Amino acid sequence: MLTLLLAPFRVLINFTFGAVATAIIGLLVILVGLPKLLIPIPAVQRGLSTCANALFRLWGYAMSWMFKLTQPMRWHIHGDAQLHRDRWYMILCNHRSWVDILVLMHLASRNMPMPRFFLKQQLFWVPIIGLGCWTLDMPFMKRYSREQIARKPHLKGRDIVTTQKKCAKFRHIPTTVINFCEGTRFTPEKHRKKHSPYQHLLPPKAGGTAFTLQTMGSQFDAILDITIVYPNQKGATVWQLLSGQLRDVYVNVETLPMQEELIGDYFNDEVFKENFQRWLNQRWTHKDEVITKLTSLADNPPQR
């Protein structure tokens, strides 16, 4: 039984499986995407994107298998029964670990459209992964500092225009856009430095969320407020996953209806900006309470 293997062997098996699956499926995605450069016909490109998306879902299934390949993994998922693969969603999620991404991939492979991430420009040059993400039309963001914009004013707003062009491609394929509102992974040190008013969360950054809604809000069927908790509230590390030490994951999914009040010009409308920040802070207060409840369940699981 693989579940009886020592930790080093579990790591070797899980890492090899994940790396091989990523390499093979990533190369297939790239091969599907290469004709997009040669055939600039919208209908053909949409068809190729659909094929690439199907391969992406296959990778999601592979990542789901990693959670149970060498250990008895238990999922505690609440509230996602009404989701559909043929719709558009935006996810608001807390961020504890890089494992969060694999958790969201597991959820997506079950009954959600495959997710899209906003990626740093540098990731484009990562072998296989960069080209694979480009084929899947994931937006690569190039951020400009205040100093760069001061020297070259024409750069102001360029990243927004780029994002709008990329998001326009999501209209043809049901998509889930993932937004880690905290902007970085939670750690006790970051929690202290930011003087967070929340017990389990960092303060949310409203700008990215508001911009995504401004760009695609009319297309989203709903907002998914997803909360992830690991046992003892420790952010699960990749090592814990690979070595089989991660046995339980608690997830709460709340489906929020789209509201016209959430779509507006965050960067130029001060009234809208204030109202949107208030709405997101209220969601974060609620999420903090949900984490407290899930943490209690994780620390005191019901007797079987």
From TrEMBL:
The chain crosses the membrane at residues 12-35. SMART domains: PlsC. One of its GO terms (molecular function) is acyltransferase activity. Signal peptide: none annotated. Residues 89-231 form the Phospholipid/glycerol acyltransferase domain. Keywords: Acyltransferase, Membrane, Transferase, Transmembrane, Transmembrane helix. PANTHER family: 1-ACYLGLYCEROL-3-PHOSPHATE ACYLTRANSFERASE-RELATED (PTHR10983), LYSOCARDIOLIPIN ACYLTRANSFERASE 1 (PTHR10983:SF16). This is Acyltransferase. It comes from Pseudidiomarina sediminum. The lineage of its organism: Bacteria, Pseudomonadati, Pseudomonadota, Gammaproteobacteria, Alteromonadales.
